[in-house]
Design a protein that fits this description.
The complex is a heterodimer. By secondary structure, chain A is an all-alpha fold. Helices cover 74% and strands 3% of the residues of chain A. Chain B is mainly α. Chain B is built from 19 helices and 2 strands. In chain B, strands 1-2 form a two-stranded antiparallel ribbon. The chains are: A mainly alpha, B mainly alpha.
Chain lengths: 501, 496
């Protein structure tokens, strides 16, 4: 019995939420909020059900024929529900945060409508059962993100939107070409198929390599790998919830997830190694890791620094994938979850600083820890996790990546990991130092750039609690990594599944 | 190619219901148009009620076709034998015509209620009826005479409709259109006369049996091709198209860009598949022009100052996609798989574009009516007040860009696959570049619409039905893309 309704309803929940939100008038704030939260809760429930099924060894599959030999397939496998779980959990947190963040601003209907569409697309990407379905949701994500990037309607935002489209639509075209080529050579190919594309190696070696380059090149734009990363720092003009969910989790992860799918479920790891593409990918990932970190140090504003940090961190996932061996895979998959949790926390905090105190630049953050202890604590947890200090979640990732590199006998990767950690420390520790150990307006020196008293606590509760919640979860993911259903445990489950095939 | 167009004998007689449904489908639009000229409808529900039997007749024909397969009618009028056939392509196009016609008719009362009263407005109804009837006849006819008459009737009624808005630029543009469409018809008629005189066959199936390659066939094919290309606004004979749309009424533009130009293309493909099967150069030439059309149409839409010019110029580029497929449909050395994929992709692209372009014209019309501005700059900041119209425009443009989940995407997929299989890399490049160019001009408009610093207009409230109709058309293009399996099955069935 495959419960076809499960993946379908999970996507329909946010699609329907989008439709209802679009048809409501701008003023009905309360109803919109309830629908948003209700849809988010329904979705988490459905994803939980899917996870239960995966544990029971029974994947929910939905499929129908579009034309000829091309099917639309949704399939809740272990890798898919992992990403789906992350995005639906963080959707709930971000929705709460966004409701607080956008309080009293214009065009909220448009914002929440497209926000729901984005989440529906992300879930579709997670659950897509073949490359064609993946492509459908991937392009949907591109389009539904645009109105969010240009939300403020300023010249800067509109220019950022234009650049975003230039990158992503071009990538979409490259991807489409790659997918069509692949279908023409091999016909329908489900992610569930266990054979990989090894059968075609003899006749089409060059062509397979070329298609791999097209596919991964297309995905690498969203994953913001150097030199295709230019859109991401500019897109930071979007409101904080957008930066948090979409540019730390949904959009960039969609790219990384696409690369995961291509290597694990389409080509198969053996074939990828055989073609020699993984080494090239590892080198590209390492360049991105170092480049992103170096650029992050040079940023004086908080959000761009976080953006360059994202560029660097997402490539850990790609690096882990391209190390042939189970430990690299576990590290990559765990990092998909860990990085999402940590980065969303950091962006939430950045948004809170901007809203409550008007802080945008890093040198304005002196002493903010005294004024906003909980927010600053959450930020510190996220930052230390990013650096990869034990016992935070980021440490686990780097540990597994390191082991993976040793097993794959790619020792230079260790050097990259160490260098990257040092660079991470170099751009995060000064912020933490400023927060807690420098004297600032909270101690009576000068004043905050634009202080608002948004709530009884240090800031508005709708802003504060999501940040604290994600910080606690990311802490727990590191501390309790050995327990069942921790990110590490689930990543191990997926990796074992891949390597036992 | 012959069987694909249903130019074969059918094994079964049409049912009695099919006869009636056919008569209703062909004549009812004329009757309804006449009635509406006498008593112009002021409300949407009246129009909906009137369209119901027409739509039912189409569905009846669909049911009969799925049960029986290819349907044929033969008869003699004034000593000339005329023939009609209903195969997969014609039933799909007939349904499309009826639904698009109904949507345009439903939209019209709302438009006439808010625009300044116009003396000639009541003539819009009968002309619309003539266009719908003539289009239905074009999809069904299988002899040269009926085809010519139907095309001529459709062209003249279309000119009439475009004239009606009563503005001076509309007058100039329509006169130019009239002149060109007459030139086109003349060339077409010359070609037909040549064929008739030399081969002596009116019936297409009969013609296909006797026709042989030679100078006469080539000259006739060239005359017919040139004339129809002019009427279909195929690049480089497209220049009349955007001025005509710039000042026409919205539902008229929707019908015209969605269907009228495609009727000529349909006839062109049908006749060339008889006259020039497996020729190398003629379809290649069309394809090269198509590539230029994609680029050139995209560039003029990108440079467009006014919204309607943008939408109209995009038709030129979208027709380019259809032209690029010609070598796969008509050319030699194309494998059966590639040919089948190209055939499916061609019609899916045509239908998807018809729905999306109609939706886009209606949405653009709503934006222009509500703000009173026609230029992109003037429409800056309209997302705040007119989100629904803008959303419809967005959904329609997804189809035009060929991004998922739309008919444009599924069609592009099929075409790309056919081109990859038959290794036509230039065509692949043209299709992919077309996506980017379309995105460039569509998002240029969106960029304006999202501006928050723009001046606030005075907004004219529109009846919500006008947006809903456009939304339904735009969504239909999405549904068509996701459920493409069903219409494409019709293309295979019946005539095999």
């Amino acid at each position: 019995m495959n419960a076809a309704w499960l993946p379908l309803t999970a996507i329909a929940a946010s699609l329907l939420a989008a439709v209802i939100i679009f048809s409501l008038p701008e003023e009905s704030r309360r109803l919109r909020t309830s629908i948003n939260l209700l849809a988010a809760v329904i979705k988490i429930t459905l994803v939980t059900l899917m996870i239960q099924r995966v544990v029971a060894g029974d994947e929910a599959i939905f499929s129908f024929q579009i034309v000829g030999n091309i099917d639309f397939v949704l399939r809740a496998d272990a890798l898919g529900v992992m990403f789906a779980g992350l995005s639906s959990l963080l959707w709930l947190c971000t929705t709460v945060y966004a409701i607080g963040y956008l309080e009293g601003t214009a065009n909220r209907k448009r914002f929440f409508g497209f926000f729901s569409l984005c989440v529906a697309s992300t879930l579709g990407i997670a659950l897509a059962g073949n490359l064609f379905t993946f492509l459908i949701f991937y392009e949907m994500l591109t389009l539904s993100t645009y109105p969010l990037v240009v939300h403020s309607g300023t010249d800067k935002a509109l220019n950022a939107g234009r650049i975003y489209l230039r990158y992503t639509l071009t990538a979409g075209v490259v991807l489409l070409f790659g997918v069509v080529l692949l279908y023409s050579v091999t016909g329908e190919h489900s992610f569930a198929s266990e054979r990989g594309l090894g059968d075609y190696l003899g006749d089409h070696r060059t062509l397979l390599t070329f298609i791999f380059a097209l596919l991964v090149g297309g995905f690498a734009v969203k994953a913001a790998m150097v030199p295709l990363h230019g859109w991401l720092p500019r897109a930071m003009v979007a409101p904080a919830p957008v930066s948090a969910l979409l540019h730390a989790v949904a959009v960039v992860k969609a790219g990384a997830f696409g690369i995961l799918r291509v290597i694990y479920d389409l080509y198969g790891i053996e074939l990828s190694v055989e073609l020699g593409v993984t080494t090239a990918l590892a080198v590209a990932a390492c360049i991105t890791i170092i480049y992103g970190s170096v650029r992050a140090i040079a940023q004086h504003e908080l959000k761009p620094r976080l953006a360059f940090s994202t560029i660097s961190q997402v490539s850990y996932i790609v690096l882990g994938v391209s190390l042939f061996g189970p430990f690299g895979t576990i590290g990559a998959l765990a990092h998909l979850l860990h990085q999402g949790l940590m980065k969303v926390t950091l962006f939430f905090c950045a948004g809170i600083y901007a809203e409550e105190l008007g802080i945008h630049r890093i040198d304005e953050m002196d002493g903010a820890g005294k004024r906003m202890p909980l927010t600053s604590l959450a930020f510190t947890v996220g930052a230390l996790g990013m650096i990869g200090l034990p016992p935070f979640a980021g440490f686990i990732t780097k540990w597994y990546l390191g082991i993976g590199a040793i097993q794959a006998e790619m020792y230079w990767v260790i050097a990259v990991l160490v260098a990257s950690s040092a660079l991470n420390a170099a751009y995060f520790l000064p912020i933490v130092y400023r927060l807690w150990f420098r004297v600032g307006p909270a101690h009576g020196h000068g004043s905050w750039p634009n202080e608002q008293r948004l709530g009884r606590l240090e800031t508005h509760g709708w802003l504060l609690w999501p940040a604290v919640f994600t910080a606690v979860i990311s802490l727990a993911a590191g501390l309790l990594a050995g327990l069942p259903f921790s990110p590490l445990d689930w990543a191990t489950r997926v990796a074992v599944g891949e390597y036992l095939q | 190619m012959m069987w694909r167009f249903g130019l074969a004998d059918s094994t079964f007689e049409p049912l009695l219901t099919s006869h009636w449904a056919l008569a209703i489908a062909l004549c009812l639009p004329l009757v309804l148009g006449g009635l509406a000229a006498v008593w112009p409808p002021k409300r949407m529900w009246v129009v909906a009620l009137a369209c119901a039997p027409l739509l039912t007749s189409g569905l009846l024909l669909l049911v009969d076709f799925t049960q029986i397969g290819l349907l044929r009618w033969q008869g003699e009028v004034l000593g000339v034998s005329i023939g009609l056939r209903l195969n997969g392509v014609s039933i799909l196009l007939l349904l499309l015509t009826q639904w698009l016609g109904a949507a345009s008719a439903l939209y019209t009362p709302g438009l006439l209620n808010v625009s300044p009263p116009e003396r000639l407005a009541r003539w819009l109804w009968p002309l619309m009826g003539v266009v719908v009837s003539a289009l239905s006849l074009v999809w069904l006819a299988t002899d040269l005479i009926t085809l010519y008459l139907a095309l001529e009737l459709m062209g003249l009624a279309a000119v009439g409709m475009l004239l009606l808005s009563g503005k001076t630029p509309a007058l100039f543009a329509s006169m130019r259109y009239l002149l060109l469409t007459l030139v086109g018809s003349l060339a077409y008629l010359l070609g037909v006369a040549l064929l008739l005189g030399y081969w002596g066959q009116v019936d297409l199936a009969g013609l296909a049996q006797v026709v042989e390659p030679g100078p006469v066939t080539w000259v006739a094919a060239a005359l017919i091709g040139g004339g129809l290309a002019l009427k279909a606004a195929l690049f480089p004979l497209h220049a009349w198209l955007s001025p005509v749309h710039a000042s026409a009424w919205t539902p008229v533009s929707a019908l015209h860009a969605g269907l009228v130009v495609k009727a000529s293309l349909f006839v062109l493909l049908q006749l060339w598949s008889i006259l020039l099967p497996d020729t190398f150069w003629a379809p290649r030439l069309v394809a090269w022009m198509g590539m230029l059309a994609i680029i050139w149409g995209g560039l003029i839409a990108w440079r467009a100052e006014s919204l309607k010019t943008l939408v109209a110029s995009s038709t030129v580029a979208q027709l380019g996609y259809l032209m690029v497929v010609f070598p796969l449909l008509l050319g030699p050395n194309v494998g059966p798989l590639a040919k089948a994929l190209a055939w499916e992709g061609f019609w899916l692209q045509l239908m998807g574009h018809a729905l999306a372009k109609a939706a886009m014209f209606l949405a653009a019309g709503n934006l222009i009516l509500a703000t009173g501005e026609t230029t992109l700059k003037g429409l800056a900041g309209c997302s705040r007040k007119l989100p629904l119209s803008l959303l419809v425009f967005g959904i329609a443009s997804v189809t035009l860009m060929g991004l998922p989940p739309s008919a444009g995407f599924t069609a592009k997929w099929l075409l790309l696959q056919a081109m990859v299989i038959s290794q036509q890399w230039w065509a692949v490049a043209a299709l992919l570049i077309g996506t980017l160019l379309t995105a460039a001009y569509v998002f240029r408009f969106f960029r304006y619409s999202f501006m928050e610093t723009a001046p606030r207009h005075h907004y004219q409230p529109l009846s919500p039905g006008m947006d809903i109709i456009a939304l339904c058309l735009a969504l239909a293009a999405f549904v068509l893309g996701l459920l493409a399996h069903f219409p494409l099955e019709l293309l295979h069935g019946g005539s095999l």
